[in-house]
Each structure stands twice: as C-alpha cells, then as structure tokens.
Amino acid sequence: MRHVLSIIICLIILIGTIILFAVDTEDLVMGYTQIVQVLGKSQLTSNEHLIGSRYERKDDYAGGYMCLADSVTGRDIPYGGCSTKNRKLMLTGKINRQHGNVNIHIRYGSECEDIQFDGKGYIEKELSFCGGGNYIVIEYENFVGEVDIKTEYIK
Hints:
The protein is of the alpha+beta class. It contains 2 helices and 6 strands.
C-alpha cells in the first residue's frame, strides 16, 4: 500500500513539474489574475439585488451609486473586488438621513473601516486598495433618506 501511495505522489509531482515548465509564466499569472477577479466579482451585490442602483459605472471599482430609501434594511456592496493590482480611488458623496441608520464601510481584506461623514452628510475619503479583496459596503437599518456616492480613480 505504501508503495502505491509513493508512486501516486511521484506521478503527481512529475505531472505538476511538466505542466509548470510547459506553461509560460505570464500565462500562469494572467490565469491566476482572472480567477482572482472572478472570485472578487462574486462578492458584489448583483444589479437585480441592489437596494439602490449603480450609475456612470466605469468598472467594478469606479462609478456612482444612488439609493432613495423608504424604511430599508439590508446591505449593498456596489463596488470593489479582488485583485492583484493596487488602486487609488476617491470616495465622495452625500447622505441625507431622515430616519433610521446607514453606515458605509470599506473592507480591506479582513480589516473594516467605518467611513465618517460630516454634520451635513458629506463624505470625502481617499481609498488605497492594495492587492486582495477590497469593497465598499453600505448597510441600512430602517433607513429613510438618500445615499449618493461616487468613486473615481486618482491619477
């Protein structure tokens, strides 16, 4: 039994080595990057399940999001993703709260940062997304009001 297991392990190592040397490194990196992006995209709230709506969308990281809410409870993840690339974005927007609560968080991998808005409801925050999973999360609790945010790339 041990000999069979040893032979199987050696075959797996041999096949892995052949594949590794037969495939171009750039192709491996590109394939890995595409897999990471697909997995990251799966965390975004789909258009049909958004409480609000996206507008002027440039890609998964940049664009606008608006929600006119009437006693809404739930969570939207309108922008973000998982990537091997670093991104710098500016988050701006306005929250007009009439009732209930709304919280905006930025998720950097396993870390989460609450975004503070000023007394008039304005938000302005520079975001540095390093490789990995980075998302804008909006949580509503019996919220009545308007949320309008936008993310744009910093040049």
